[in-house]
Amino acid sequence: MTPNWDDMRVFLAVAREESLSAAGRLLRIDPATVGRRVARLEASLDAPLFTKSQQGYVLTSAGERLMDHGLKAEEAMRAAAGAMAEPSERLSGQIRIGAPDGCANYLLPQVCGKICDANPNLDIQILALPRVINLSRREADMAVTVSAPTAGKLLVQKITDYKLHLVATQEYLADHPAVHSIRTLGGHRMIGYIPDMIFDRELDYLVDLGVDRVALASNSVSVQLRQVSQGSGICIAHDFTLPFHPKLKKILVDQVSLTRSFHLVRHQGDQRNERLNRFAQALSQGIRDEVERLEAEASP
Asked: Where does the HTH lysR-type domain start and stop, copy by copy (predicted)?
């Protein structure tokens, strides 16, 4: 028996959320109904699609095979919906963006707010995760990344460069030995990412400075900046975050100045979706403008 699209939608939701209740919330149907639909699909295919574990619902080998076909079917349905949609000057519906913590906290709120102001019927969801967003499983419609992915059928475009510098509070600097050079950082408490949770080599800033110990660590940029703002140590900060933390002062600017880039990553199958193309254009321009504005405010 050929699976119908409604059952396939339920299957994909459970595969992504790994939970009947989470899939039910996503689809806005009762979890018991989700379970019955999955059972019906398994019966029609005469194959178990999930195993229940402590982590939730995990795909079996048969489920993994069906997932590949389900994603292709979903892509085709999305393309059809985009092709049939009536042209409109305004965007509508729901779009989910994945982004690293710094971008999600300090850039996307302003950028997405302006896009929503111009498109009142558009719902934007920001998925801030300390890891790479899995676009192949449709965790998001598009993602902002620091490194440009090289594998998978993806559309990748560079959005903009951004700057980073060492920062600390004036109070911390007054109460601790002077920071004259990179070599003197060893005598200070360094704040940064949890070393074994750095998901992108471009985020491993401190190792390039010869820092071998991170005394205060978090996988969240926001937590790191809160810690340094309280006078707890020194960290590397995005320049675009500094207007939100006026107590922070750049240090060793002539010796440490890092440049990284944001990229917008999308499903290759969405390249003919005019609605997502327009949103991607607005998002990219908004991020460029916001980085430029905030970095200008953060200049000495």
From this structure: 3-60
CA distances from 203 to 162, 183, 215, 229 (A): 13, 21, 17, 20
Placement of tokens 């795909």 in the chain: 59
Q: Could you tell me the two tokens for 163?
A: 């700057």
**What is the model's pTM?**
0.73
pLDDT tens, N- to C-terminus, the chain (300 residues) = 567 888 888 998 898 888 999 899 888 899 999 999 999 999 989 999 999 888 789 999 999 889 888 877 777 776 666 555 555 577 888 899 999 999 999 999 999 999 999 999 999 999 887 666 665 566 788 999 998 887 777 889 999 999 999 999 999 999 998 998 898 888 899 999 988 888 788 888 888 888 888 899 999 999 999 999 999 999 999 999 999 999 999 999 999 999 999 999 988 777 778 888 999 999 999 999 999 999 999 886
Domains of the chain, start order: 5-84 (1.10.10.10), 93-160+261-298 (3.40.190.10), 161-259 (3.40.190.10)
Residue 119 carries which side chain, given as an amino acid letter?
N
Neighbours of 105 (CB within 10 A): 18
Tokens for 3?
A: 């699976």
Helix (H, G, I), strand (E, B) or coil at 26: helix
What secondary structure letter does DSSP report for 213? -
Q: Where are the alpha helices (DSSP H) in 47-133?
A: 61-84, 101-106, 108-118
Would strands 93-99 and 122-128 be described as parallel, antiparallel, or unpaired? Answer: parallel
